[in-house]
Amino acid sequence: MTAPPQVHNPTDLPHNNGAVPTKPRGQNLIGLTRDDLKAVLADMGVPDRAQHMRAQQLWHWIYHRGVRDFHHMTTIAKDMRQALAELYCLERPEIVRTEISQDGTRKWLIQSEPGVAFETVYIPEENRGTLCISSQVGCTLNCTFCLTGTQRLVRNLSAGEIVAQLMIARDELDDWPVIGASNERDRAITNIVMMGMGEPLYNFDNTKKALSIVSDGDGISISKRRITLSTAGVVPEIPRCGHEIGVMLAISLHAVRDEVRDELVPLNKKYPLADLLAACRAYPTANNSKRITFEYVMLKQVNDSLSDAKELVRLLKGIPAKVNLIPFNPWPGAPYQCAEWQQIEAFAQVLMKAGYASPIRTPRGRDIMAACGQLKSDSVRPRASARHIG
Ligand code: SAH
Fold it and tell me: Ligand 1 center to residue 146 CA distance, Å?
């Protein structure tokens, strides 16, 4: 089997400066950076010297306060608000379905234009709340244990569509800061994982832009230490991820021998274990307080033996690492079974004895198909002939 194609911003898509696509109500500002906002203001005739401050104000209202109506931007002059409202919008993509699990996990199916639907999952825990964000509609990687892998790539999400997932979750959870509230309550969303549909490092530029917006301290303000990007192992992009994005790294490892990993994560044929681990060893920001997470899905009699656990210890030597053991989440027609619980615990024991934190991830939201590897939308990539109409 040939390695999956690299997908960087498919060129047959309309260019919209990374923002969320919108209907005729004017260009959407969600997904724009400060510089993009300055350009918008320049277009509106705002003089050079005022652009920085005006962009700062817009930034605050859009990304810190989450307002959706320019008329609520009270620090901006009324005629300016009116002009903004006539030319631009702050529309979120539409939520087409919300599901709430018995354990409180929420899954939203979000559609930004016809045929482009993706899923976002919110996982509340005792002392934190994690939002799992998608980077692509569908995926090119075809990992054999992952349901998303059965959906062909439709397209990369724009920076705006990535940021909008967080904004929608804050809208739905009523999680925008209330300025002037005497007791600033804890945020519902404290952490982000780029672990939804798609491979974020195959949508590098949009992911980078979106995470720079999300982590900006004057806006949504989720620190890079609380953002984890998970990759199946796109080795050439891993150093750039460290240098240019600077978030925590997670690697979907899942196997310790190339023969097995070739099967589970076909990308391994292109970037085998030795290359992947070398990239991790060199990861710019990794240290003992910023460990790399290795995700390892526990598949019965495929990768769950104790000799696999020992080999994992050997492979991780020298890497500031922790291991996340993920009980396999089943989906209809999946060719695997979850490893026995006792086996998972014994596997964890080997890792812990070697000094690696190795929590077993509690499956969340399985009843609504929101757990790891259970995300899929009905979107399909239109045939090439249909894509070029108009
Ligand atoms: N493409 C990226 C981002 C997706 S993250 C990556 O592969 O890392 C989704 C995580 O869930 C990955 O670690 C993936 O390997 C894991 N996963 C996929 N299917 C799963 C399943 N059925 N059960 C448990 N984990 C699964």
Answer: 6
Query: Which position has the token pair 């681990």?
Result: 277
User: Can 372 be counted among the known catalytic residues?
Assistant: yes
Query: pLDDT tens for residues 28-79?
Result: 999 999 999 999 999 999 999 999 999 999 999 999 999 999 999 999 999 9
Alpha carbon of 203 to ligand 1 centroid (Å): 17
| Architecture label for domain 31-89 | Orthogonal Bundle (1.10)
Question: Closest ligand 1 atom, CA of 374?
Answer: 22
Measured from the CA of 199, which atom of ligand 1 is nearest?
A: 1
Return the domain boundaries, the chain: 31-89, 94-368
pLDDT digits (tens, 9 = 90+) for 357-367: 999 998 899 99
237 is catalytic: no
Average pLDDT on 107-119 reads 96
Residue among 119, 161, 199, 295 flagged as catalytic: 119
SS percent in the chain: helix, strand, coil, step 5: 35, 20, 45
- Say whether pTM exceeds 0.85: yes
Per-residue confidence (pLDDT) for residue 37, from 0 to 100: 97
Pick the CATH number of 94-368 from 3.40.50.2000, 3.40.50.300, 3.20.20.70, 3.40.50.10700: 3.20.20.70
Q: Which residues, at least 6 apart from 155, have a Cβ–Cβ distance to it below 8 Å?
A: 10, 13, 116, 136, 137, 381
Among residues 129, 118, 161, the alpha carbon closest in space to that of 9 is found at 161
Q: Whose CA is nearest to atom 13 of ligand 1?
A: 252
